[in-house]
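User: Once you have settled down, look closely at the record that follows, taking as long as you need, and be ready to discuss the fold:
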Amino acid sequence: MERTQGATLGLYGAAALAEIAGCFAFWAWIRLDRSAWLVLPGVASLCLFAWLLTRAEAEFAGRAYAAYGGVYIAASLLWLWLVEGARPDRWDAAGALICLAGAALILAGPRGG
């Protein structure tokens, strides 16, 4: 069953949230001196991320990962703002828009020679 590009972007958004949350659990434990118990839900979140990314509609894993990268960058900046309380600056926003444009090109670009 082929997904729409919007559904794929939504899937990538969910995967990004799971990956960032999982990685942040390790960041909080090691860099913010929080409980090591945070690693358990962090690992579960990283497993969810990997599973979600396999649901992406793509012929090749590398193409799915490449398109996901742009969404991940934008989601990371949203995390920076909403969770860590540091507002992204105009350079962050411009970089994220460039990456999202690249992701859209990878997802929507015509295929075949």
